[in-house]
Amino acid sequence: MPLLNRSAGIVLVGGSSTRMGGSKPLLEWHGSTLVRRVAGLVARGVGGPVVLVRSRGQSLPLLPDAFEVVDDLEEGRGPLGGLCAGLEALAGRAEVGYVSSTDVPFLHPAFVRRVVSELGPGIDACVPFVRGFRQPLAACYRVSLAPLVRSLLAADRLRVSSLLEACHWKELDEAALLADTDLARFDPGLESVTNLNDPHEYRAATSRQPPTVHVQWLGEGACSGCPAPSGTAVQAGTTVQAGTAVQAGFSRRVTIRAATLKAAAEAVDVVLGSHLVAALNGDRMRQDPEEPLAEGDVVSFAGTGTGP
Fold first, then answer.
1. In the predicted model, is pLDDT for residue 39 greater than 70?
2. How far apart are CA 115 and CA 63, in angstroms?
3. Could you tell me which CATH class the domain 209-303 is placed in?
4. pLDDT tens across 214-227, in order?
5. How far apart are CA 166 and CA 161, in angstroms?
6. Each residue of 21-48: b (16+ CB within 10 Å) or e?
7. Residue 84 to residues 48, 78, 79, 146: CA-CA distances in angstroms?
8. How confident is the model at residue 185 (pLDDT cuts 50, 70, 90)?
9. In the beta sheet, which residues pair with residue 99?
10. What pLDDT does residue 241 have?
11. pLDDT of amino acid 275
C-alpha cells in the first residue's frame, strides 16, 4: 500500500458569487486568475495533490494537469458540501486536507504550512481565529472526517460549525500563527485570510502592488540582458538596464514586484524556455508562466549548462 501524503489541498471554487456579480475563479489577477493563483499557493504549502471542487458544469480557466477538478454533488448545501467532496476525493491519498476558498489572493504558502503543522495526534481539525473571526475556510481537516461530514449533510446540518461541534478541533489564534518565523516575516498582517466579496473589494485588492520577490541570475546565458546592481528595485514589466556581463558561476540579484513567474522573467528581460532552468526558493520548478509568486520568494534563472 502506498504511503499517504501528510497533507493535500482542497480549493472550493463553486458558489454563485452573487455579491461579486460574476465568477470569482475567473477574475483576472496580475496576469493570471484567482483560481490559478490560489490553487498554486495552496499546492506550495502542502505535499500532496490539490483538488478543486466546483459546481456541476462550472467553467474554469485552463489549469495545469497537476490540479484535479471534482464536482460538488451537494449543490446548494454550502461549503460543507464542497468540503465533503474534497475530503472524499483525497481518501486513501492524504491524512490532512487544507481547505481554502478561491478568493484569497494574498494567501502565503507559509500560512498553509503553519496551519497544517498544528494538527497533531488526537486533533481532527485546526481552525485559525483571525481578526475576531473563526476562519473555517482557511483551515485543515483530517481526511478521515469525510463520513462524518456526509452524515451531517444527510441530517441537514449544513454549517461548518456543526462539524466542529462533532469532532476534536484546535483553534489557532494570531499569536500562535505568527510564532512561525516565516509567516511573521512575510505575512505579519495575516493577509492570507483576506477574501474578496464584491467588486469594490476586488478593485481595491488589484490596486495593491504585487508581492516583493527577488530574482537572481546564476552563470552565463541566463538572461538576454544583464543584471542591475544587487538590491535594485524595479516594477514588473520593465526591463533591467544592461550592466556588467554575467560570467560563468557569477550571481547577481534584483528585487522586483511580480505575481507570476512570467512577470518575474519579463521584469528582468528573461525569456522562458528550454534554454533556461528556473528555481523557486532553491527548488527547480516547471516553467509555467502563471506559477504564482508570494512575498519574499527568490526566483533563480540559469542557462541549461549551468543549473539552478
1. yes
2. 26
3. alpha beta
4. 999 876 544 444 44
5. 9
6. eebbbbbebbbbbbbbbbbbbbbbbbeb
7. 18, 10, 9, 6
8. very high
9. 10, 139
10. 32
11. 86
Cα distance between residue 22 and residue 225, in whole Å:
41
Amino acid code (one letter) for 97: G
pTM here? 0.88
Residue 76 burial by Cβ neighbours in a 10 Å radius (0-12, 13-18, 19+): exposed
Residue 210 and residue 175: Cα distance in Å, rounded? Answer: 26
**Distance from CA of residue 190 to its chain's centroid?**
14
Domain spans of the chain, in order of start: 5-204, 209-303
The CATH architecture one would assign to domain 5-204 is: Alpha-Beta Complex (3.90)
Is pLDDT of 249 > 50? no
Convert the chain into a string of H (helix), E (strand) and C (coil): CCCCEEEEEEEECCCCCCCCCCCHHHCEECCEEHHHHHHHHHHHHCCCCEEEEEECCCCCCCCCCCEEEEEECCCCCCHHHHHHHHHHHCCCCEEEEEEEECCCCCCCHHHHHHHHHCCCCCCCEEEEEECCEECCCEEEEEHHHHHHHHHHHHCCCCCHHHHHHCCCEEEEEHHHHCCCHHHHHHCCCCHHHCCCCCHHHHHHHHCCCCCEEEEEEECCCCCCCCCCCCCCEEECCCCCCCCCCCCCCCEEEEEEECCEHHHHHHHCCCCCCCCEEEEECCEECCCCCCCECCCCCEEEEEECCCCC
Does pLDDT of 228 surpass 90? Answer: no
Give the separation between CA 81 and CA 75, rounded to whole angstroms: 7
pLDDT, tens digit (0-9, with 9 covering 90-100), for 87-125: 999 999 999 999 999 999 999 999 999 999 999 999 999
> Distance (Å, rounded) from C-alpha 219 to C-alpha 251?
6
User: Using alpha carbons only, how large is the chain's radius of gyration in Å?
Assistant: 20
Residue 254's alpha-carbon distances to 60, 215, 232, 267, in angstroms, are: 35, 5, 5, 10
